[in-house]
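Researcher: Sequence recovery benchmark, item below. Answer with residues only.
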């Protein structure tokens, strides 16, 4: 009989709901400081049934202690306190609007303005030029190393000779920065400024475009874009993670690209280049 009573009591205890934890404002600040995210903190607030009639000073204090707006709204019992996913646009001409990470060309002006995203072209085809001069002079004349990308012209076309570009890095969208983005690739994961890019003009060939990314002679070899092949550009920060980029001088008609990664170039000469290509 005693065994039955003990089992029954245990069963009732397990079936009884646990009392919700009472949260304090200090608890909320501590949870937010761990970096677990608004979703988890708001879920904890909602499950505990904790709400506060916060004063203006308390709200300002919480914000200063690292508590986000959506969490403060949840503390007040707001009906729409769940954090919303970041709003993204692929073509808004406003750089203050969130865009997926990447390089964008500003198309048109005024009411018809929009941004066009430039997809990077990746190549691992390497060619050599000037090899006869190199051989005949015993290496005194330089041999150039070129990388080639397919098609004779880029899909993205700038209608003016001094086009405007916007670079959106992961920092501009911290909510999505942990996702795989345009710049999250190998050693280039930390790219965060246009200063890490090189603007070049490419030579149009039959069925392809070429860019010089190295040279070699009897004195040694160089890998990367040669100084004389670089096209100067200016850039300015619009907001954290977003930069406006413009060439310093008008560009003549032709094929161009921003290179931000050149890897390889070992004994077999193979290279991989990532180029945001466009034409003028």
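Model:
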């Amino acid at each position: 009989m005693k065994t039955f009573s003990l089992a029954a009591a245990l069963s009732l205890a397990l079936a009884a709901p646990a009392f919700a934890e009472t949260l304090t404002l200090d608890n909320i600040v501590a949870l937010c400081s761990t970096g677990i995210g608004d979703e988890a903190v708001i879920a904890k607030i909602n499950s505990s049934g904790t709400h506060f009639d916060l004063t203006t000073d308390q709200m300002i204090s919480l914000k200063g202690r690292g508590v986000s707006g959506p969490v403060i709204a949840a503390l007040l019992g707001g009906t729409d306190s769940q954090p919303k996913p970041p709003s993204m646009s692929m073509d808004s001409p406003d750089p203050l609007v969130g865009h997926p990470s990447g390089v964008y060309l500003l198309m048109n002006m005024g009411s018809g303005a929009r941004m066009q995203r430039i997809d990077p072209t990746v190549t691992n085809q390497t060619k050599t030029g000037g090899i006869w001069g190199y051989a005949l002079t015993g290496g005194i004349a330089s041999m150039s190393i070129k990388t080639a990308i397919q098609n004779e012209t880029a899909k993205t076309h700038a209608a003016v000779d001094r086009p405007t570009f916007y670079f959106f890095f992961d920092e501009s969208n911290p909510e999505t920065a942990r996702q795989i983005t345009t710049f999250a690739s190998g050693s280039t994961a930390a790219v965060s400024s246009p200063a890490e890019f090189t603007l070049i003009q490419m030579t149009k060939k039959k069925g392809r475009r070429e860019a010089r990314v190295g040279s070699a002679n009897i004195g040694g070899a160089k890998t990367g874009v040669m100084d004389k092949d670089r096209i100067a550009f200016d850039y300015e920060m619009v907001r954290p993670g977003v930069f406006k980029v413009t060439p310093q001088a008008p560009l003549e008609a032709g094929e161009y690209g921003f290179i931000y990664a050149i890897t390889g170039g070992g004994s077999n000469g193979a290279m991989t280049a990532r180029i945001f290509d466009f034409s003028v």
